[in-house]
Amino acid sequence: MGGETLLDKIWRDHVIRDFGDNTYLLHVDRAFLHELAAVAFESLKNARRPILSPELTFATVDHLLDTTPGRGDDTIIPNGKDFIQKLRAGARETGISFFDIDTAEQGIVHVIAPEQAVALPGTVFVCCDSHTSTIGGLGALAWGIGTTDIEHVMATGGIVQTKPQTMRVNFTGALPRGLTAKDLILHLIGEISADGGNGYAIEYAGPVIEQLGVEERLSICNMSIELSARLGLIAPDDVTYEYLAGRPYAPKGAQWDMALSYWRSLPSDPSAQYDRVIDIDCSVLTPQVTWGTSPEHVIGFHDHVPDPSQAETKREQASMSRALDYMELKPGMRIAGLPINAAFIGSCTNSRLSDLRAAAKVLEGRKIAEGVMAICSPGSAQTKRLAEAEGIDRIFKDAGFEWRESGCSLCMSGGAGGERFPDHARVVSSTNRNFEHRQGRNVKSHLASPETVAASAVAGRIAIAEHQ
Ligand SMILES: CC(C)[C@H](C(=O)O)[C@@H](O)C(=O)O
Ligand code: SF4
């Protein structure tokens, strides 16, 4: 018998009922909502179902917010106010914790949950958003659920789930200078495909992961969903505990000590078995940039756009050809040097203080290229404040970037109705999805790290920073 994995340990400590057949009723520790799920409050009210634990339920506004300085009319879509008002009313009536638009805690849900320590190691954490997998970077079981499911969680504190299979991805070798967490996860998606994590909980491990800061770990787990994984997670360690200590919702005093000794018991046992194990040698990697319309369409900065005729399956061939047409690229072209129209730094993947610092290092004393539209939207009000206290906003603005309020911003532009990049623009973006039309009509999105986005904005072409 092998030992237990991190997933096994957190899972078994949350089982309320084992139905057999790999299906369980799990206890949920935290539920987080954003305005697109505001209807949950209404449905619960209509059904006269109270929220079981308002003190464990949280909400903020992020998706539909206007992120232009001053926030204009608050929202970027015509009926955005309805969502926000419904959420506000629901929060007020039920007494949950609500980080409203103008509060110091507001931000993208996946940025503020760790920032405020609402999310903690060893917890089961759910939110009505696919990128909830981000929270796994703290060593939690966290995944996105639909609005009906979140209603159920709010009313009962439980959720029925099948237990995922386990995959371990070991990142080994010396990390080359300038290689970021974003490059690691993009590379993995390219290696095992956008479907490669289907049915799995992926534990990211190995010496490279251990050396990463919490914010970088969050970036990696964020994109687990782009692998179709149920969730991603990283064992908590001293780096995690140091990050959490003293944050607003972190346990204090004796409770902190108790939590810490529990958290220390969570990492996978050395003898634990996984359903699949993958090893990635990081020492040979270069900064990654996507060329197509799925995060799996990714290559190293120095590589050439692939040829669909080399694809292994007909399906893959068709998807690659379609992506090349949409992206207006030809097989064999170099991705390096491709002229761009816009650059975006933001989103729940890469809008934290460490991301903004890294981009600012590239931008310091430089100007973005003529004609490039460049936007930075910090992931939270707190991130924005801290960045401004360090003068990072000045560096961005002096370089020619727009320095925005926090929110999802142009990551998905509030859906088709929101603010978008100009039609047909080629955008280098620190976000997680390069799907067709996501950032605007016929907009061609290239995913990359914040450093690569900053260097590209300066060059006016896809470029990497000198230190990369
Ligand atoms: C709109 C929302 C529910 C969606 C998600 O679940 O991921 C969004 O955040 C996204 O990134 O596409
Ligand atoms: S920042 Fe983008 S990916 Fe993240 S939750 Fe918002 S819209 Fe979704």
Automatic annotation (TrEMBL):
Keyword terms, alphabetized: 4Fe-4S, Amino-acid biosynthesis, Branched-chain amino acid biosynthesis, Iron, Iron-sulfur, Leucine biosynthesis, Lyase, Metal-binding
Record PROSITE patterns: ACONITASE_1
Cofactor(s) the protein requires to work: [4Fe-4S] cluster
Pathway per the UniProt entry: Amino-acid biosynthesis; L-leucine biosynthesis; L-leucine from 3-methyl-2-oxobutanoate: step 2/4
Gene3D superfamilies the record matches: Aconitase, domain 3 (3.30.499.10)
UniProt xrefs under InterPro entries: Acnase/IPM_dHydase_lsu_aba_1/3, Acoase/IPM_deHydtase_lsu_aba, Aconitase_4Fe-4S_BS, Aconitase_4Fe-4S_dom, IPM_dehydratase_rel_enz
Physiological role: Catalyzes the isomerization between 2-isopropylmalate and 3-isopropylmalate, via the formation of 2-isopropylmaleate.
Subunit structure, interactors included: Heterodimer of LeuC and LeuD.
Protein name per Swiss-Prot or TrEMBL: 3-isopropylmalate dehydratase
Annotated organism of origin: Hyphococcus luteus
